[in-house]
Amino acid sequence: MDTTTDTVILGIAIAGLLRKHQSVKALDWRAEARTALNVKRLSPAQAAEVDRLVAHVGDRIGKQRAAAKRIDPLVIRERIIRDVTLSGATPGKLPIEIIARMLPEAARRITPAVKAAYARADYRTAKHSHVTSVVCVLGGPSRCAAESLSGSDTPRNVGLPNAYGRIAYSVATSAHTLVVSPTWQRDVADAGLAVIEGMLTLAAVPVGDGGFAGCLSLYSAAWARQGKGTSLVTERGVIARLSDGSFVHAKDVTHARKLARARSGDAIAERNARDARNNARAAARMTLDGWTVGELAVAITAPDSVAAGNCETGTDDWIERHFAGRVSATVGDVLRSAFATQDRVRWAVAACLVAVRRARSSAKKAA
After folding, report:
1. What is the DSSP string of 290-321?
2. pLDDT per residue over 7-54, tens digit each?
3. Residue boundaries of the structural domains of the chain
4. Which residues make Cβ contacts (< 8 Å) with residue 166, sequence separation at least 6?
5. 82, 80, 85, 106: which is closest to 95 by C-alpha?
6. H/E element, 103
């Protein structure tokens, strides 16, 4: 007899049956061993080996059960963290009944931290009647969400004086429910992701460094964005931690790469230089020396002022004050009058710029 082979076969068979039946007394183990070894009768050595294996595996099950009875709730919570996959699959090592009992406890423990982060996000709520609650759910960003409900109630029901009720006021109400993972404290708060760009992060799962310059780490995440009124909108995508220590929300990795590039040192320097040039040109436009002879000779009309964003009434009043009785004017005429009187200078310059651009566009089309 190959004792090693027989022992392995018996061990596998007995361990499988014990896990299935959870009892050493539920079956005739020697009969099961004969079936596993495909023999009609066990030898004395084989029978002794069966008894030894059953006692060994049964002892392990007994110790596991005894430990489970003494287990601390925090230890169960850590097992939830360890066993529950980020996709929300049912854990294989912990009974789902225990997890279901522990989720309210996990929610109770992390509620103060979640509500503190929620307060920093400063979402809109009803002034006199609002409720914020935290619920735990197994899974990653795909399972977490921010739910909102709005309505109205009588003043008396929300604790306002009865005087409001006598004139038939109704009071707006709102409720926000934050559905987060039991591991929110570890995955989100401890990682510094609780509130980013004024929005509460509901879940975050590390997915590497993003694979592009300027990104230190990347997270698959879900967050709550302010919607219309007091409503909240759940958005899912990625959060990127950039090399300058800031964070950005993005729809996907490609979008995060574009945002990281826009916030890079070279891009910022280029924008600053462009802004400086634009500011210099704008400052020069505030004097006649900043305009060419050809630009000063361009004809300007009232529609040019309206196209620049000035209102029609204000445009008509300005023309009446400075060009009463005239039917036409040039950019130079308008600028000289505006600079001399300091009357709506910025609005006058804007209208002149529109007139110059219109003249350039017409010249190109004619060419």
Report:
1. GS-HHHHTSEE-HHHHHHTT--HHHHHHHHHH
2. 555 555 555 555 555 555 555 667 767 776 677 887 887 777 777 777
3. 3-70, 104-262, 285-366
4. none
5. 80
6. helix 96-121
